[in-house]
Each structure stands twice: as structure tokens, then as C-alpha cells.
Write a structure and sequence with these properties.
Elements: E1 34-39, H1 50-61, E2 65-68, E3 84-89, H2 98-109, E4 113-118, H3 125-139, E5 145-147, E6 175-179, E7 182-188, H4 212-232, H5 239-247
Parallel strand pairs: 1-2, 1-3, 3-4, 4-7
Antiparallel strand pairs: 5-6, 6-7
Length: 259
């Protein structure tokens, strides 16, 4: 099988990830993985209901029992209790203190996965890209932001997704920062978490443009992919999975367009 992360000394992983890959593990109650979803929004809560929506979708669709944090994480030190943390970012990107950058870098090196979700729309997106380069350099010196090729397992960890869906569709690609042969930081510029938000009546809070409900479904699928990637990395690149996918009519590994 592919690489799986079991770094219990630094991160709470939950139950055995291998159970998730077994066809017999139909539900989390039958022995699947239990994992907590966390989000970090220290200044002002953003997309507060998104985590619970994503957790419920993961529970229904996979054998992972995802539990959502009721409140946003308030400090970077809390990251060490979670394998995956979502961080919504708006136009004013944070400037990390040196000690904060060290803590975050250590968590990532220990196996944590950070998702930076740009919520600021099109107006400041170019400035955001430059600012994120600086943020990444502070966290992981020497690391660089790179475009994730469409052939990456990240686009097919559980579902086959062909772009980077969210509430908007400003940027077609995911971007990421590699460390130790994996994507430690994943970046989306399409306000992904906003596509998951629900109101008190359980209805979706935000319109999704331009693709409507199909785009929302694609965003949920990407969220599921990201979680399973954080737990199991490249198992979908194993020979047994590749042979199965290639046996399906009209399926082929996506060709990267290099743009």
C-alpha cells in the first residue's frame, strides 16, 4: 500500500487508517478511522459551520468518522492535536512572529497538513499570491509554492476532480508546498469552505458561482480528497489502484498542461 502517516507522538490520528481502505469497512462504526477536523481563524470566525458540514459529508461518503471542532483553534500550538487544519485567509494576510512560524513549521515537519483557503475574492488575489510566498518562506525556509499538476493523486484520492472548486472559480488549479515527498501545505484561491456553509435551518448559506450546485458538489468532493490525502498520501498511486482505474473505459491519467 502507499505511505500512511502514524505520527502519534505529535499528532492525534484516531483509529487505524488501513481500515478505511477495506471494502468491508462500510461505515466508521464498523471500524473505520476517526479524525477531528479543525480550522484556525484567530482574528474573526470565518465559515463557522463549514467544518460540521464537511464532517457530515465525509461520514456519509467514506469510512472515516470525521468530528468537527465547534470553535476555531485559537493558537498555533493547538495544531499538534490535529493531522489536518484549514486556515481561511482574507485580504489582510497575517504576519507570523518568529516563534509562531517555528511552531507551525515543526507541526508540518511532523506530518501535519495545512490548507490555506483564500476568501478574499478576485480584487487582491495577485497580492495574496505574493504574500503567501512570504508566509510559506517564514514557515518552511527554502520551500516554494508550486502548482499542483492535474495528474497529482490529490485530484483523485477518493473522487476524480479536474479543477479546484469552491464558492468561486477564480483559479482553476490547486497550489501547494512540498516537504518530504508530500504536500504539507495546500492552497486554494476559490473560497472552498464557503461552499460548505449552512444556516441554522440547514440550508446552504452562500451561492456558488458560476457552476451552481454541481460546483458545490465538486468542492465537497475536493474536501473529501484533501482529508484522505492528509491521512494516506499516495495510496491511489499504487499499482493495484492504477491498474483498476486504467481498466475503466475512457479513463486515463490526466495530462498536465503545464500552465
Amino acid at each position: 500500500m502507499g505511505k500512511c502517516l502514524f505520527l502519534r507522538s505529535c499528532i492525534l490520528w484516531g483509529a487505524v487508517v488501513a481500515a478505511m481502505l477495506s471494502p468491508a469497512a462500510a461505515t466508521a462504526q464498523q471500524g473505520g478511522t476517526v479524525v477531528s477536523l479543525a480550522w484556525y481563524s484567530p482574528a474573526q470566525p470565518v465559515h463557522a459551520s463549514a467544518m460540521s458540514t464537511l464532517a457530515s459529508e465525509i461520514l456519509v461518503r467514506t469510512s472515516v468518522e470525521a468530528l468537527a471542532m465547534e470553535k476555531s483553534l485559537s493558537s498555533l500550538e493547538q495544531f499538534y492535536s490535529y493531522p489536518l487544519v484549514f486556515w481561511p485567509l482574507a485580504s489582510d494576510l497575517p504576519t507570523l512572529k518568529r516563534e509562531e512560524a517555528v511552531v507551525l513549521g515543526q507541526w508540518l515537519r511532523s506530518g501535519g497538513t495545512l490548507v490555506l483557503d483564500w476568501t478574499g475574492g478576485a480584487a487582491h488575489i495577485e497580492q495574496a499570491k505574493l504574500a503567501l510566498d512570504g508566509l510559506v518562506s517564514a514557515i518552511l525556509p527554502g520551500a516554494q509554492v508550486e502548482r499542483v499538476p492535474k495528474s497529482s493523486v490529490l485530484y483523485r484520492t477518493f473522487y476524480r476532480v479536474t479543477y479546484a472548486p469552491g464558492r468561486t472559480r477564480l483559479v482553476e488549479d490547486l497550489f501547494a508546498v512540498s516537504y518530504g515527498g508530500r504536500y504539507a501545505i495546500i492552497i486554494t484561491y476559490n473560497d472552498m469552505l464557503a461552499a460548505f456553509e449552512r444556516n441554522s435551518e440547514g440550508q446552504y448559506r452562500r451561492d456558488v458561482v458560476p457552476g451552481g450546485e454541481q460546483q458545490r458538489e465538486d468542492a465537497i468532493r475536493l474536501g473529501v480528497n484533501i482529508l484522505l490525502y492528509a491521512l494516506c498520501l499516495d495510496y491511489k498511486d499504487d499499482r493495484i489502484h492504477m491498474d483498476y482505474l486504467k481498466s475503466k473505459r475512457n479513463w486515463r491519467l490526466p495530462v498536465d498542461d503545464g500552465q
